[in-house]
Amino acid sequence: AVAAEEARHLVPFDRLTIALLDEETVELVAVGPAAHRGAAPFAAADMAWALRRPVSWCEGNGQAAPDRLDEVLDAPSIRSVAAIPLRSKDRVIGSLNLGRLTALPFSAWDLAVLEPVARHIAIALDNARLLETVKQRSQEFQSLFEIGRGIVERLDLDALLPLVVRSVNRILGTHYCLLLLRSGDTLVFAAQEGLEPEIVKAFQTLRLGESLAGWVAANGDPLMLPDKRNDQTLVHVVGG
Known about the structure:
The chain is of the alpha+beta class. The protein has six helices and nine strands, in the order αββββαββααββαβα.
């Protein structure tokens, strides 16, 4: 909202969005009466025209409209657009996008005065992300400290292992965590957080190699399945 207000003092427009890059995906922040924030229905490659350099387009100028224009501006019938890359520390982190519903072109002067606004936005975004990272690290250190304190205080396993699974959920932002300990050729349930009792009951004792957890314990390697629906080679530790 602050970015939109600053830009509006300099250049008239009807629509403003900020596209934020996250590797190949895009998060779109639409500012205005219908303000919202969410994943964009297109990839970063689809809006490359807005990420290379300051650019403008207007209906009737003899050039084809930029790719996914209405989606980048999150509004139908955009007839004129200006886009300025958001650069921070020599990398592009997104773009500032302004649109008009009339075929009134953005001038080279408009692009020039919007570039400092884009720089301020990029710096603010980097600072916000840095603060978010610091908060996340603080939570991680706090969780590790609690585990370490439990070990130093020589808590028995019945008290320490629930602390471990709670800390894992807090650090990773996960909804549940199941901890199994190896005993010979079996895995014995030790602690959990977030699982339903009937699910926990099904995993009181597992044999090595019989499940995702069994495979990991038998091979000594980490394993991740981004989408179990497309990988049926293993039985997932939580069923389903």
